[in-house]
Amino acid sequence: MSEKPRLTYINGRGRMESIRWLLAAAGVEFEEIFLQTREQLLKLGQDGSLMFHQLPLVEIDGMKLVQCRAILSYIAGKYNLYGKDLKERALIDMYVEGISDLMQLILMFPFSPPEAKEKNIATISEKATERYFPVFEKVLKQHGQDFLVGNRFSWADVQLMEAILAVEEKVPSVLSGFPQLQAFKTKMSNMPTIKKFLQPGSPRKPPPDENYVATVMKIFKLD
Amino acid sequence: MSGKPVLHYANIRGRMEPIRWLLAAAGVEFEERILKTKDDLQKLRTDGCLLFQQVPMVEIDGMKMVQTRAILNYIAGKYNLYGKDLKERALIDMYVEGLADLFELIMYHEFKPANEKEKDLANIMDKATNRYLPVFEKVLKDHGHDFLVGNKLSKADVSLLENILWLEELKPDALAKFPLLQSFKARMSNIPSIKKFLQPGSAKKPLIQEKDIPSVIAIFH
To answer: Start and end of every GST C-terminal domain (chain A) (predicted)?
Structure first.
């Protein structure tokens, strides 16, 4: 029996990608199960594996964890990516929650109708450059350290790195006004675990395409 | 200067209510600065008080905290409402995150236009009775303890109680099929700090009145 965490989701980024990022950044190898039919999802629900009948599901340390934030918090806590005390954790939580509001726009983008796509990219660009990136640019500038919190690698750094790359896929020049974030991105890219995750053949999933959207609609029956 | 936390929000439940609940359950007195107009919100923004230009914001222990979950996690950690180890925390987080999904529906219900309210309520009750409440009925049945996790009060219990009570305000027989949740509700309501919060005159906010909805929406849009 393997002791690696086991991730159950569809074969795409969605709500599992942040978890893949964090495990990878922590240097933790994991297995993945990709659902292809709605019947498979319903069966998992009937088995009692899904507390709220939803994915993602991560089996780790004898638990069947659901709910992204619960999963991410557990991984962060277990692998010392959650700061050294309550106050550092509070900072990490604030940063991660802010970034996840931005990531929500990215998550929903593939499901917007074609005529709304241009406007949605403009919204992503505006929110990134006016609300979220300036905060982290300022944090890095003020303390001059490599990492966002406590001069130590944390969940907040991983989440910011994921968000930067995801936004750049939609808005390639988005970091042009943010020199600190450009340097941050370079430093993160060179961290051994992240470097490995960014290479072809890693568990990192490609940007969502029509196939992904169709699979999500079919399996999760979104209407 | 008082050492009490200061809560900045509109005079509604909204995203601040879970925070009021948790502080109250922890027996922590707090102050509130009520936003009445968009100018009030703008002032907080231009003063640099809001990390992401949004409320809720809670001044606590020298920090200006934003993001509901971050604030709740800090309060839970500080007042020992977050379990005894990582695994209990994971359980608490799972329960709270599930309830947060339900809460999102309940919270927005107040602002639905009249012609959508009935259908919206049916959806909320469907999700509550088929997806969420059965989970917690089963948890309580399986371990037979008074509290959801680790036989000790945690933020999961507070969140469950808050959601149960709000559901009952919308539909009084919401707990009809859940005997253990009914006794959970009775037990929790008798905890002194919570009992105090449930009394008139406490910081607990009432349901919004229809006449006040436009002015609240004006603050945020």
So the answer is: 85-209
Name A59's bridge partners: A6, A64
Which of B65, B86, B94 minimises the CB distance to A77?
A: B86
Quote the longest CA-to-CA distance of chain B: 51
What ipTM was predicted for this assembly?
Answer: 0.96
CB contact under 8 A, B135 and A94: no
CA distance A17 to B55: 28
pLDDT per residue of chain A (223 residues) written in tens, 0 to 9: 458 999 999 999 999 999 999 999 999 999 999 999 999 999 999 999 999 999 999 999 999 999 999 999 999 999 999 999 999 999 999 999 999 999 999 999 999 999 999 999 999 999 999 999 999 999 999 999 999 999 999 999 999 999 999 999 999 999 999 999 999 999 999 999 999 999 999 999 999 999 999 999 999 976 5
State how far the Cα of B215 lies from the Cα of B104, in Å rounded to an integer: 21
Alpha-carbon gap: A86 to the closest alpha carbon of chain B (Å): 7
Q: B1-23 as b/e, with b when 16 or more CB fall inside 10 Å?
A: eeeebebbbbbbbbbbbbbbbbb
Chain A residues with beta carbon closer than 8 angstroms to that of B90: 63, 65, 70, 73-74
∠ CA A164-A165-A167, rounded to 5°: 65
A84-189: CATH topology: Glutathione S-transferase Yfyf (Class Pi); Chain A, domain 2 (1.20.1050)
**Do B86 and A132 make contact, defined as CB atoms within 8 angstroms?**
no
Which residues is B35 bridged to in the sheet?
B10
Question: What is the helix, strand, coil percentage profile of chain A, to 5?
Answer: 60, 10, 35
CATH fold of the domain at A4-77+196-218: Glutaredoxin (3.40.30)
- How many beta-carbon pairs under 8 angstroms link A with B? 77
Which chain A residue shows the shortest CA-CA distance from B100?
A67
Q: What is the pTM of this model?
A: 0.97
From chain B, the residues in CB contact with A78 under 8 A are 86
- Record the tokens describing residue B178, joined without a space: 């859940």
| Residue B138: exposure state from Cβ atoms within 10 A (0-12, 13-18, ≥19) | middle
Find the CATH number of the domain harbouring B162. Answer: 1.20.1050.10
